[in-house]
TrEMBL record:
Cellular component, GO annotation: plasma membrane
UniProt entry tagged with the keyword Membrane: yes
Species for this entry: Pusillimonas minor
Lineage: Bacteria, Pseudomonadati, Pseudomonadota, Betaproteobacteria, Burkholderiales
Protein name, per record: Protein translocase subunit SecE
Protein encoded by which gene: secE
Similarity annotation: Belongs to the SecE/SEC61-gamma family.
Gene Ontology terms for molecular function: protein transmembrane transporter activity
GO term, biological process aspect, one: intracellular protein transmembrane transport
Amino acid sequence: MSNTNVETVSSTLDRVKLTLSVLIIVAGIVAFSVLDNQPTVVRVAIFIASLVIAAFVAWSSEPGRRTISFGRDSYGELKRVIWPTRKEAMQMTGIVFAFVTVMGIMLWVTDKILGWAIYGLLLGWR
């Protein structure tokens, strides 16, 4: 095992916020199920509203702030990536398809040779 530090929720208030977020989502699911006589649009709106409220409650906790910070950092890194051109992407895709085709043919030939050796020579079934 590696010696990485795992950050856990240590504050009681953060635990309460995260538990409240889960309960809000559960309440949205229950409301969606219980209000089956209401129009579907209303039921879906209530469920989406519960997700939004739960997200705001969760993001107000320390783990939520860390998650938002991680997302911002990831987006910044994504903007720094040098993406391949269309020509390069098509060439690499062609190489992958050619490799998969060659490997498939090699595995098929190997299977046929082993099948012939085992069933034809050793067992005499064919």
